[in-house]
């Protein structure tokens, strides 16, 4: 930086240097592209082979494969970056070990990165999520698409792809780890007999349970959940196979509504008791 | 990193080395699998033996067993990782003691891990939770499935499995540490006599208390909780055996509603007093 | 860690060593159990003795006893842990004084622990809470069950046991430090005379004050608190003995409602003035 | 810790030592009790003397007295603790100056303590609060009972005693620093004449102002605050003596309601215009 | 602390020393009182002199005066404290420079103090507020009473005095820096002609603008702000002199309501279209 | 501070020193005032010259001018402060380089300052805002009045001047960077034909687009946005010139409402279907 | 700073120096402008060339181009700043390496900058966003306009340009990464047959699917989503091409509403059951 005096610069030599550097950069870039595509194919093949032989679930296999590619791409990029820095005559080790303001700044920058990698490592080690799981973390919900060293990708049900740095995943809810509960609340009139309504609802539930293979347990009418302002709310719960809970709930809602209707039990609208007062009495308020 | 010049690499030797390393890796991986399954069986047997002899509650026994397996698996993975690093010629101690940017970064990463382990250690030491307890921590509720060194697993009532890093468990509410309260609020009409209603409700409560073994104390009508906008709200509370509170509440709601109905006491809908005004007077507003 | 080469391990010696260690562990564990139960009994007896002689409130006595047991158990566990570490040939002092990554990590872990102990110490020193007090801290409310060096246990009114690390107790509201206020808001109609209503309510209050011993001051009708949308709200406040505020409020609500009814003063439902408009005029809106 | 080997301990000497230590502890404890009660009496007497001679407000005097006792008790406890540590052969200075993990941990613990003392010092120096003031800080409101070096005690109006560490008092609202405002919003009908209503309300206000000595300024009708959905809201404000604002507001509400009634000005209920549509036209919606 | 052995203390010498110290303390305290009152008077006089000669706004003059007194009082207290410490033989410099746990703790305590002074310094330098300004910062609003080195005092409109540490003043809204906007939203019926209503409202606005000197610009009807559920909302805005915005808004509301009434334009109540259905058809719902 | 013994002070010499210092202060203060006003004029003239010659937008020119004055005033104040410190014999460099408690404290204080300047620097460098732009940052909205090194001033639409430290400006929304969208939602009756309504609305939009020069694109009826509880909501959007969006929205609302009215398409009030039930049946509820 | 004594300054030499410096500054400024415009053109051309040859998506190409310009402009500004500092005789390296208060402060300032660059680097490396993508991050939504090293610019749909420092982008939702879901909820009457309604809705869906090319899957009626208080809610979902989801939803809403109408299936208004009570019975409430 001491010799930034513009007139002293040897422009020709500089242009030749720039040309050489560009050639080197191009060569390295193509090498990088070839190694990357070759590496990805090898990883893909290896996992196909392993997938067939050993007893690894398809979700786990996909997880490991996407992770392997992710690590491979980071290693490549790291080598790529170091090589380029060397072309410009900068030693990476010198930067990493460099003290002073720059070293400190890089250290702070690296902090987030390390946090991501450590958290990601334990998520994988404890098998908290696999590719294809339906998970919720923070305010993001969806199907896991990729678990990387630094970032986890979750596909929301509306099609959005959420990129979540692993360090942001503190607590994690996995909805694909066993049977799920279907829950339907249905309100009947205060005038109707509760026992009769329960009988009707339970019979319908039993019929559905016979037909629907996705139901593991129940559905059962468990009783009066709330004495609402206009209705007596009965709760029905069932245990279903994973991801089948919503379909079962929809089936239950339709069948139970039709069963109550068929048996003359009312699902009441909001009620209100009105008391008429003469406008004359109202003038007394003023 | 100084010799990354691509043309200098001896490709044959590299392939042979790679082959040897792969062989070693495979051997270590199988050893790891065998030791893991054997270890888990030994832990399981030991706890069965201890469970029979000593006076340890089943929940505590499960907790300790799941913890023992968890620690065992981490120790194995640590040995596994160190062995693999040695194959690649990297000394783990050198990394852990390594100063500079990497050491600092690892230190920051380890911070979260240590926080998890220390918190987990005190949760276990103070017996705050056991496997099978119904707990709430932060926004997560459910039955504890596993207490690990780093992560606690809670199964929500809808079937979701929550993975919570121990450091996220600051305050913890355990709903399985003694009898629980059942609470029912029931609104009667402003026209009805309060004393009469209390008598009817209390009689019903007493009948239920005789029949239901899960009720430890009460249920008792404790009085007028609120003078609502349309009803006089009476509160009934009872003490029940753990996890039986919801069933008792449901039973109470059904029985009390039927008792009031049988005695002609009204559970009122929302009320409103209407005052009719002529459209003529409304034109005066404009 | 340098000699992890699997083939070099002397398996027999290792097994004998393991056996000896297990024996030692068992011996120490039983010693630990005996000392613990003996110590707890001694603490219990001592406090019984002190409780009789000196003028310490029962709540304070329970607090100190539970604390003494808590400290005793931590000291025991610390000695227990150090002894076990010595069996494995690890010096605790070396760990505590150990610099590098591990020392730093332990330091961070200890930070939370020290914070807990210091906060707990001042809570006890300033007598902010005693066992049996009804307190609120953060979002947790209930009766204090145990005050430990590290954790305070609060039993919620629904039966839940809350474990709160002392460092989480920043501000603390103690509801068991003197008389409490009972507060009842009651709405009368805009048509009724306010003075008449106040007279009726105050007379009822005075009658209750004569009968109920838990009332320390009042209850008094202090005036018109709000001009509501449908009612004129009168406020009644009283001072009661500690924890009796809810019972007094319930008694007041019942008595005041019945007194108003007996004197023909209306507790009004929500009012609304309706203005009928012809559908013909409505077509003009579109 | 090096000689924790159980068999080497000389049990007799240990018991004698324990006995001596217990004796010393008892002696120190009684000395502590005597000095404490004597000191508190001296502080109390001194402040009575000062209070008579110098022009210090009673609130300030109580503040300084409670503070003096608080500091005195902390100094005593500190001396007490140091003496006890010496009995066990531990030098306090060594602990305070001790480096390593323990020193660091104590440093962190002390941080909160220093923060409390510094904040408390400036609250007292700037005379932000005195004992007896009605203050709000964070989510806590009430009368100040004690201002300590570490903790401030506020008595809520419902009787709860809030213990607030001084460091939690960031911003502070003192409601006892001058006259307060009484504010009443009253809605009149859209049909009524606004000028007439203002005249009626202002006359009532003037009458009250003559009678009530607690009113310093006003009350005045300042105009139309809102054009509500059913009423025209007029605002009345007054300046009252400290802590009299609520009583004045209640008096105003009652008097103004009665004045409007006497002059035939309506306080309207919520209004709604209804347009009847035939069920026939409704079938067109589906 | 080494010689705390109680029996070794020479009680007589100690009493004499204590007497001398008390005498010195009294002397310093009176000197402190005299210097303080003298200093405050000199500051007051100086500012009166400056205020007459130079062109400084009264608000700025008051700000500087209150600040000067505040700084003067802190300087005095500092000298006072250092003198007292010297009487007890403690050198302040030693404390401030003292390393170890105490130095560190004091450093942390000073941090908040420095933060207060630096923020306060820039608030004054950038003339963000003057005594008498109406400001909002965080959740506190009111008139600035005093700007100190450490704390700013804001008097809320209800009479409360808010003490806000300067460091808590991050963003600051000053409502006394130029003309303010008066804004009135008024709803007319869907049946009324919008152009006609705008003409009526604008005429009324123009009349007010002629009379009211506090209005700088407007008021103007700017158009249809919302198509509400029951009314068409028109917005009127004006620019008024500082602190006159509320009075102008009240005047506008009253005048505009009366103008609409006089011209037969309706301010509508909430509307609702009702469709009657027979109870017979309702039984079909159940 | 060592010679604070009051009797040793030479009062006369002290007074003379004080006089000399006051004279110096006055001289420096007047020099400061002259340089400041002269500097500001030079800056103003320079920017006028530049503004004429080069192609810089007026907003950018104002921004740079206000910034130049701001930097100039800070440099002056810095020189002023250093000079004054020298009069009192204090070297600024010594303070800045001073280690120990004071140096540390100043360092912490400076931290916020540096944060402000760095953020401000990048806001200016990236041309995120110019004087006159309408921006939103955090909870503050308005027109930018001044961008300083430390503080940005935003004038809210109600006339309030917000002072925002630059470090508080994390994310920033600039509403003056291109055309804006006008958006009107209008609800029609379920009985009306949607296609007909769209035709009517689109025709009105096209007429407005012809007349209003501020509309850049549209307005277009884009379709059924919501099936509301009482109406079918159609959305109209347009692209307008900057800051013209509100005027266009108001114009659209008025025109569209009148067009629908003219074509007999209803903007419906909230609807409700009522089912009459006899009071007799209601007694069954109780 | 030592020679700030005003009288010693050689004013003439100072003026000549100032003139020279201004000349240098002007020269450097023009050089800077020329290099900047030239560099930007070269970057633009290069990307046009690359865009034609290689298979890079247009979004990616724009991203890289805007980034290249951004980096280029920062490099230029850095060189520019260093050159100017040199003119004033200040060495940049000395500042960057400078210890003490200034070095520390710069270090803190740089921290945020490094955080921005590191986060930005990984966003680009992982291809989380491209120019033209529709993304949501924090509370900001819109189309990405520029991705810089330090700041990302997002254009909101209302025309606002959001400047977001990269470090503020923690989690990121990209709505342009594949097909999106269209979702319509439609409520039918409790009186209508659910199966019939589903048939009608599905037929309409199928017709739309045939015509609209943007629909990739569905739309399908998936069943009863809710049993509402006045209606049975049926849910329809479809998968559409990216960014076409809103248009499809609008089309579906219109077509489904018309289909239900044509088949006589009611979309019900809110329902309420009214029970008439005589004013006589109401007097009993009071």
Automatic annotation (TrEMBL), chains A, B, C, D, E, F, G:
<dbReference type="InterPro" id="IPR010920">
    <property type="entry name" value="LSM_dom_sf"/>
</dbReference>
<feature type="transmembrane region" description="Helical">
    <location>
        <begin position="95"/>
        <end position="125"/>
    </location>
</feature>
<dbReference type="Pfam" id="PF00924">
    <property type="entry name" value="MS_channel_2nd"/>
</dbReference>
<comment type="function">
    <text>May play a role in resistance to osmotic downshock.</text>
</comment>
<feature type="transmembrane region" description="Helical">
    <location>
        <begin position="71"/>
        <end position="89"/>
    </location>
</feature>
<dbReference type="Pfam" id="PF21088">
    <property type="entry name" value="MS_channel_1st"/>
</dbReference>
<feature type="transmembrane region" description="Helical">
    <location>
        <begin position="13"/>
        <end position="35"/>
    </location>
</feature>
<dbReference type="InterPro" id="IPR049278">
    <property type="entry name" value="MS_channel_C"/>
</dbReference>
<protein>
    <submittedName>
        <fullName>Small conductance mechanosensitive channel</fullName>
    </submittedName>
</protein>
<dbReference type="GO" id="GO:0005886">
    <property type="term" value="C:plasma membrane"/>
</dbReference>
<comment type="similarity">
    <text>Belongs to the MscS (TC 1.A.23) family.</text>
</comment>
<dbReference type="InterPro" id="IPR049142">
    <property type="entry name" value="MS_channel_1st"/>
</dbReference>
<feature type="domain" description="Mechanosensitive ion channel MscS">
    <location>
        <begin position="113"/>
        <end position="177"/>
    </location>
</feature>
<dbReference type="InterPro" id="IPR006685">
    <property type="entry name" value="MscS_channel_2nd"/>
</dbReference>
<dbReference type="GO" id="GO:0008381">
    <property type="term" value="F:mechanosensitive monoatomic ion channel activity"/>
</dbReference>
<dbReference type="InterPro" id="IPR011014">
    <property type="entry name" value="MscS_channel_TM-2"/>
</dbReference>
<dbReference type="InterPro" id="IPR045276">
    <property type="entry name" value="YbiO_bact"/>
</dbReference>
<keyword id="KW-0812">Transmembrane</keyword>
<dbReference type="Pfam" id="PF21082">
    <property type="entry name" value="MS_channel_3rd"/>
</dbReference>
<keyword id="KW-0472">Membrane</keyword>
<keyword id="KW-1133">Transmembrane helix</keyword>
<keyword id="KW-1003">Cell membrane</keyword>
<feature type="domain" description="Mechanosensitive ion channel transmembrane helices 2/3">
    <location>
        <begin position="70"/>
        <end position="111"/>
    </location>
</feature>
<feature type="domain" description="Mechanosensitive ion channel MscS C-terminal">
    <location>
        <begin position="184"/>
        <end position="267"/>
    </location>
</feature>
<dbReference type="InterPro" id="IPR023408">
    <property type="entry name" value="MscS_beta-dom_sf"/>
</dbReference>
<dbReference type="InterPro" id="IPR011066">
    <property type="entry name" value="MscS_channel_C_sf"/>
</dbReference>
């Amino acid at each position: 930086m001491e010799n930034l005096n513009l007139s002293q610069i040897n422009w020709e030599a500089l242009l030749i240097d720039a040309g050489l550097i560009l050639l080197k950069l191009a060569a390295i870039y193509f090498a990088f592209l070839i190694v990357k595509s070759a590496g990805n194919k090898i990883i893909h093949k290896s996992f196909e082979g392993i997938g067939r032989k050993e007893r690894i679930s398809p979700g786990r296999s996909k997880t490991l494969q996407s992770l392997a590619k992710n690590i491979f791409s980071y290693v490549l990029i790291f080598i790529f970056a170091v090589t380029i820095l060397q072309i410009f005559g900068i030693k990476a080790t010198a930067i990493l070990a460099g003290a002073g303001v720059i070293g400190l700044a890089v250290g702070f920058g690296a902090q987030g990165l390390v946090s991501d990698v450590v958290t990601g490592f334990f998520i994988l080690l404890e098998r908290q999520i696999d590719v294809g799981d339906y998970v919720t973390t923070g305010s993001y919900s969806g199907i896991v698409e990729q678990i990387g060293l630094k970032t986890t990708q979750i596909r929301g049900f509306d099609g959005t792809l959420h990129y979540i740095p692993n360090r942001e995943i503190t607590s994690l809810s996995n909805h694909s780890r066993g049977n799920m509960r279907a829950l339907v609340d249905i309100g009947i009139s205060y005038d109707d007999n509760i026992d009769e309504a329960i009988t009707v609802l339970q019979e319908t539930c039993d019929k559905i349970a016979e037909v629907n293979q996705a139901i593991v347990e129940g559905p059962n009418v468990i009783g009066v959940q709330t004495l609402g302002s206009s209705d007596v709310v009965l709760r029905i719960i069932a245990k279903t196979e994973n991801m089948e809970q919503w379909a079962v709930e929809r089936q239950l809602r339709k069948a139970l509504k039709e069963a109550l209707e068929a048996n003359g039990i009312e699902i009441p609208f909001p009620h209100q008791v009105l008391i008429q007062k003469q406008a004359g009495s109202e003038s007394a308020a003023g």
